[in-house]
Design a protein that fits this description.
The protein is an all-alpha fold. The chain has a single domain, classed as Na+/H+ antiporter like domain (Na+/H+ antiporter like fold). It is 67% helix and 3% strand. The longest helix is centred in the first third of the chain and has 43 residues.
Length: 430
Amino acid sequence: MDIRARQNVLPTSLPGAPRDTVPYIRMARSRAQRVIDPVTEFLRTEASGGLLLLAASIVAMVWINSPVGDGYTDLWEAELTVGFGDLSITEDLRHWVNDGLMAIFFFVISLEIKREMIVGDLRHPRAAALPILAALGGVVLPAAIFIAITAGTGAGGGWGIPMATDAAFAIGVLTLLGDRVSTGAKLFLVTIAVVDDVLAILVIAVVYTADLEPLWLVGAAAGLLVVAAMKRLQIPSPLAYVLPALVVWVATLESGVHPTIAGVALGLMTPAGAVRGRMVLEELEHRIHPFTSNLVLPVFALANAGVVLGGSALGTDSEVRVAAAVAVGLIVGKLVGISAMTWAAVRTGLGRLPEGVGGRTALGVAALGGVGFTVSLFIAPLAYPDAALADSAKIGVLSGSIVSALIGVAILAGVPGRPSARERDAPEPS
């Protein structure tokens, strides 16, 4: 059933029902809309953001490979100092995007993770089992493929690059297919991406972390304790948390842990319930998600997707194998890993396909899982301080994501339009 149709399932009254039942019916309707409306808004924002992300990536690629390509490099390598004296931070513009703006992006990701665990599919064990198992298959196999292809090159440390799925880009692709793709398929893809994000965050925090500075870590922990105390005092205004959040971000940056982890921690600490009548998590997601999808991610793509093609690109065996490992990991690893685990989970009864998702649609969603893009591009320079290897990995991300998107569209284009409650594109495994 389409999400918009569900909003009208619960009537405000029932024929013959006692008058005192009406408030309870209205309350049930309100609770249903609390789940439905944020999901509808999330999908719509992801779709528009995905298209902007694609446009920004094309601009970056054309710009850096044009006669004025030096201007692209000069722009993003220009240094910017914020603060004064010993209280200042100096980074180039690209790092301000990757360390600063992307912390806000990961904050929104963690809000979505928490909402999925509290009111979404991840709160139901059997419904959660399928996307969790599917995501695990789509993480382990690409990493294994990457390690196998890069064996003996000394460049195997980038195995985390093909692990991610870009929900915004993939949902943007799905919008091109119109009513051939059910809401259930979109939610299935988003839920897989959410689980992927959890795993990617863990990999960034554990694997791609520089030397640690214990005192700064203590400072970050102290900032989080202040936030926890404010939360316990039920301070509802998000603006009150801005200063301690900045302290946590700076301390995390200086500690050697990637500063985006500060955004993750702060997001997971956001209360999911009402605080003095304000739904803080929903309010923050409503206000910040359009900003990250329509501005932060396109700016990130503009700063990071510019890779020089031709000339010295892929000039060594290691660079070629890194690019191939990322591309094959995304294209083959995601498709086979996600679809195989989905089939196994449904076949054994450990999970169930969402309403409106049949076998062919699940296969198409698995292919779109190979659209790694944002987080994959984000991990590449963390895995490879060597710019040549990082650029090779980015070439693999871009090519693998494009091919995965084309395969997903080709599979889903054959699904009948206006899918019914149960799609007839393929029988469900028994």
